[in-house]
Design goal:
11 helices, Rossmann fold, 225 residues, alpha/beta, 7 strands, seven-stranded mixed sheet
Protein backbone atom coordinates (compact mmCIF):
# COMPACT_ATOMS: atom_id res chain seq x y z
CA UNK A 1 0.00 0.00 0.00
CA UNK A 2 1.28 3.47 -0.89
CA UNK A 3 -0.14 6.62 0.69
CA UNK A 4 0.27 9.80 -1.38
CA UNK A 5 -0.35 12.68 1.01
CA UNK A 6 -0.90 16.33 0.12
CA UNK A 7 0.53 18.97 2.46
CA UNK A 8 -1.14 22.40 2.27
CA UNK A 9 -4.70 22.11 3.50
CA UNK A 10 -4.13 18.45 4.38
CA UNK A 11 -1.12 17.87 6.66
CA UNK A 12 -1.07 21.63 7.32
CA UNK A 13 -4.61 22.86 8.03
CA UNK A 14 -3.96 26.13 6.19
CA UNK A 15 -2.26 26.82 2.87
CA UNK A 16 1.37 27.75 3.57
CA UNK A 17 1.87 29.48 0.22
CA UNK A 18 -1.28 31.59 0.54
CA UNK A 19 -0.28 32.62 4.07
CA UNK A 20 3.18 33.55 2.80
CA UNK A 21 1.75 35.68 0.00
CA UNK A 22 -0.80 37.35 2.25
CA UNK A 23 1.99 38.51 4.54
CA UNK A 24 4.92 39.28 2.25
CA UNK A 25 3.72 39.75 -1.35
CA UNK A 26 2.24 42.60 -3.30
CA UNK A 27 -1.55 42.33 -3.43
CA UNK A 28 -1.41 41.60 -7.16
CA UNK A 29 -0.73 37.96 -6.24
CA UNK A 30 -4.51 37.60 -5.95
CA UNK A 31 -4.94 38.63 -9.59
CA UNK A 32 -2.45 35.95 -10.58
CA UNK A 33 -4.33 33.45 -8.43
CA UNK A 34 -7.55 34.28 -10.24
CA UNK A 35 -5.82 33.63 -13.57
CA UNK A 36 -4.82 30.18 -12.28
CA UNK A 37 -8.22 29.23 -10.87
CA UNK A 38 -9.87 30.27 -14.13
CA UNK A 39 -7.52 28.00 -16.08
CA UNK A 40 -5.79 30.82 -17.96
CA UNK A 41 -2.49 30.19 -16.15
CA UNK A 42 -0.88 26.88 -15.22
CA UNK A 43 0.36 26.06 -11.74
CA UNK A 44 4.07 26.50 -12.48
CA UNK A 45 3.69 29.92 -14.07
CA UNK A 46 1.33 30.99 -11.30
CA UNK A 47 3.69 30.11 -8.45
CA UNK A 48 6.71 31.54 -10.20
CA UNK A 49 4.94 34.86 -10.75
CA UNK A 50 3.54 34.99 -7.23
CA UNK A 51 6.81 34.22 -5.45
CA UNK A 52 8.52 36.93 -7.48
CA UNK A 53 6.27 39.37 -5.61
CA UNK A 54 7.57 38.34 -2.17
CA UNK A 55 9.77 40.95 -0.52
CA UNK A 56 11.44 40.13 2.80
CA UNK A 57 14.83 39.29 4.24
CA UNK A 58 15.79 35.62 4.58
CA UNK A 59 15.80 35.67 8.38
CA UNK A 60 12.25 37.01 8.42
CA UNK A 61 11.07 34.39 5.95
CA UNK A 62 12.78 31.57 7.82
CA UNK A 63 11.08 32.70 11.02
CA UNK A 64 7.73 32.62 9.22
CA UNK A 65 8.34 29.09 7.96
CA UNK A 66 9.30 27.94 11.46
CA UNK A 67 5.72 28.64 12.54
CA UNK A 68 3.88 26.46 10.03
CA UNK A 69 1.31 24.39 11.93
CA UNK A 70 0.48 20.78 11.03
CA UNK A 71 -2.33 18.44 12.05
CA UNK A 72 -1.21 17.11 15.46
CA UNK A 73 -2.51 13.63 14.53
CA UNK A 74 -0.35 13.34 11.40
CA UNK A 75 2.62 11.93 13.30
CA UNK A 76 0.34 9.22 14.72
CA UNK A 77 -0.84 8.42 11.20
CA UNK A 78 2.75 8.04 9.96
CA UNK A 79 3.75 5.83 12.90
CA UNK A 80 0.73 3.59 12.42
CA UNK A 81 0.80 3.19 8.65
CA UNK A 82 4.56 2.65 8.44
CA UNK A 83 3.98 -0.83 9.92
CA UNK A 84 2.38 -2.07 6.71
CA UNK A 85 2.58 0.69 4.06
CA UNK A 86 4.72 3.41 2.53
CA UNK A 87 3.94 7.09 3.04
CA UNK A 88 5.13 10.03 0.93
CA UNK A 89 4.21 13.68 1.01
CA UNK A 90 3.61 14.83 -2.55
CA UNK A 91 2.80 18.52 -2.70
CA UNK A 92 2.56 21.23 -5.34
CA UNK A 93 3.70 23.59 -2.61
CA UNK A 94 7.18 24.44 -1.33
CA UNK A 95 9.70 21.97 0.06
CA UNK A 96 11.35 24.22 2.67
CA UNK A 97 8.31 24.85 4.91
CA UNK A 98 7.26 21.20 4.59
CA UNK A 99 10.65 19.86 5.69
CA UNK A 100 10.91 22.49 8.43
CA UNK A 101 7.49 21.60 9.85
CA UNK A 102 8.11 17.85 9.71
CA UNK A 103 11.46 18.22 11.44
CA UNK A 104 10.00 20.42 14.17
CA UNK A 105 7.27 17.86 14.83
CA UNK A 106 9.73 14.94 14.60
CA UNK A 107 7.95 13.24 11.69
CA UNK A 108 11.08 12.83 9.53
CA UNK A 109 12.40 10.83 7.81
CA UNK A 110 9.62 10.67 5.24
CA UNK A 111 9.92 11.14 1.46
CA UNK A 112 8.89 14.64 0.38
CA UNK A 113 8.24 15.63 -3.23
CA UNK A 114 7.57 19.34 -3.65
CA UNK A 115 8.69 22.41 -5.57
CA UNK A 116 12.13 23.64 -4.52
CA UNK A 117 12.16 26.95 -2.69
CA UNK A 118 15.14 29.22 -3.42
CA UNK A 119 16.14 32.07 -1.13
CA UNK A 120 17.25 35.12 -3.07
CA UNK A 121 18.26 38.64 -2.12
CA UNK A 122 15.23 40.07 -0.31
CA UNK A 123 12.90 37.51 -1.81
CA UNK A 124 12.21 34.01 -3.09
CA UNK A 125 12.48 31.93 -6.24
CA UNK A 126 11.28 28.49 -7.19
CA UNK A 127 12.41 25.46 -9.19
CA UNK A 128 10.40 22.45 -10.37
CA UNK A 129 12.40 19.22 -10.01
CA UNK A 130 9.26 17.07 -10.08
CA UNK A 131 7.42 18.53 -13.06
CA UNK A 132 6.53 16.38 -16.06
CA UNK A 133 6.20 17.58 -19.65
CA UNK A 134 3.27 15.21 -20.14
CA UNK A 135 1.37 16.53 -17.10
CA UNK A 136 -2.07 17.68 -18.26
CA UNK A 137 -2.55 20.43 -15.64
CA UNK A 138 1.13 21.45 -16.00
CA UNK A 139 1.55 21.29 -12.24
CA UNK A 140 4.85 22.13 -10.60
CA UNK A 141 4.78 18.65 -9.09
CA UNK A 142 3.07 16.02 -11.23
CA UNK A 143 1.56 13.82 -8.54
CA UNK A 144 0.60 11.15 -11.06
CA UNK A 145 4.22 10.87 -12.27
CA UNK A 146 5.58 10.74 -8.71
CA UNK A 147 3.12 7.99 -7.77
CA UNK A 148 4.05 5.99 -10.87
CA UNK A 149 7.74 6.31 -10.03
CA UNK A 150 7.27 5.24 -6.40
CA UNK A 151 5.10 2.32 -7.48
CA UNK A 152 7.22 1.18 -10.44
CA UNK A 153 7.31 -2.59 -10.74
CA UNK A 154 5.40 -3.18 -7.50
CA UNK A 155 1.65 -2.70 -8.18
CA UNK A 156 0.94 -1.29 -4.72
CA UNK A 157 -2.52 0.01 -3.91
CA UNK A 158 -2.33 3.81 -4.17
CA UNK A 159 -4.31 5.78 -1.60
CA UNK A 160 -4.55 9.55 -1.96
CA UNK A 161 -5.13 11.90 0.96
CA UNK A 162 -5.78 15.47 -0.14
CA UNK A 163 -7.95 18.53 -0.32
CA UNK A 164 -7.46 20.62 -3.46
CA UNK A 165 -6.91 21.28 -7.13
CA UNK A 166 -3.46 19.69 -7.32
CA UNK A 167 -5.04 16.37 -6.27
CA UNK A 168 -7.78 16.21 -8.91
CA UNK A 169 -5.80 14.44 -11.61
CA UNK A 170 -4.29 11.72 -9.43
CA UNK A 171 -7.67 11.14 -7.74
CA UNK A 172 -8.90 9.55 -10.97
CA UNK A 173 -6.19 6.90 -10.84
CA UNK A 174 -5.99 6.22 -7.11
CA UNK A 175 -7.41 3.03 -5.64
CA UNK A 176 -9.06 5.01 -2.87
CA UNK A 177 -9.24 8.69 -1.89
CA UNK A 178 -9.52 10.38 1.49
CA UNK A 179 -10.87 13.80 0.60
CA UNK A 180 -11.92 17.15 1.98
CA UNK A 181 -12.38 20.65 0.55
CA UNK A 182 -12.33 21.03 -3.22
CA UNK A 183 -11.18 17.44 -3.67
CA UNK A 184 -14.20 16.14 -1.75
CA UNK A 185 -16.58 18.11 -3.98
CA UNK A 186 -14.74 16.84 -7.06
CA UNK A 187 -15.00 13.21 -5.97
CA UNK A 188 -18.69 13.63 -5.24
CA UNK A 189 -19.35 15.21 -8.63
CA UNK A 190 -17.24 12.69 -10.57
CA UNK A 191 -18.40 9.56 -8.75
CA UNK A 192 -14.90 8.74 -7.48
CA UNK A 193 -14.76 6.28 -4.57
CA UNK A 194 -13.71 8.30 -1.54
CA UNK A 195 -13.93 8.77 2.22
CA UNK A 196 -14.46 12.26 3.69
CA UNK A 197 -12.12 13.26 6.51
CA UNK A 198 -11.21 16.25 8.66
CA UNK A 199 -8.11 15.11 10.57
CA UNK A 200 -5.69 12.21 10.31
CA UNK A 201 -7.41 10.65 13.30
CA UNK A 202 -10.36 10.10 10.95
CA UNK A 203 -8.06 8.42 8.41
CA UNK A 204 -6.48 6.20 11.07
CA UNK A 205 -9.90 5.07 12.28
CA UNK A 206 -10.93 3.95 8.79
CA UNK A 207 -7.66 2.10 8.15
CA UNK A 208 -7.87 0.41 11.55
CA UNK A 209 -11.37 -0.76 10.67
CA UNK A 210 -10.01 -2.25 7.42
CA UNK A 211 -7.30 -4.07 9.33
CA UNK A 212 -9.53 -5.15 12.23
CA UNK A 213 -11.62 -7.43 10.05
CA UNK A 214 -8.46 -8.95 8.51
CA UNK A 215 -9.61 -7.89 5.07
CA UNK A 216 -7.21 -6.97 2.32
CA UNK A 217 -7.87 -3.22 1.88
CA UNK A 218 -7.96 -3.80 -1.85
CA UNK A 219 -11.29 -5.58 -1.35
CA UNK A 220 -12.69 -2.50 0.31
CA UNK A 221 -11.55 -0.13 -2.43
CA UNK A 222 -12.67 0.08 -6.02
CA UNK A 223 -10.36 0.91 -8.87
CA UNK A 224 -11.13 4.24 -10.46
CA UNK A 225 -8.68 3.96 -13.32
Amino acid sequence: MLFIVDFDGTVAPSDTVDSLLERFADASWKTIEAEWTSGRLNSRDCMQAQLALVTAERAVLEDFFQNVIIDPTFADFVRYTRRFAEVAIVSDGLDYPILTALQRHQVLPIPVFANKLEFRASGLGIAFPHCDAACGPQSGVCKCAVARSLNAGRDLRVILIGDGRSDLCIARGADHVFAKGALLRYCQNEGIVHTPFETFDDVIAVIQAWNAVHTNPSHEMSHVR
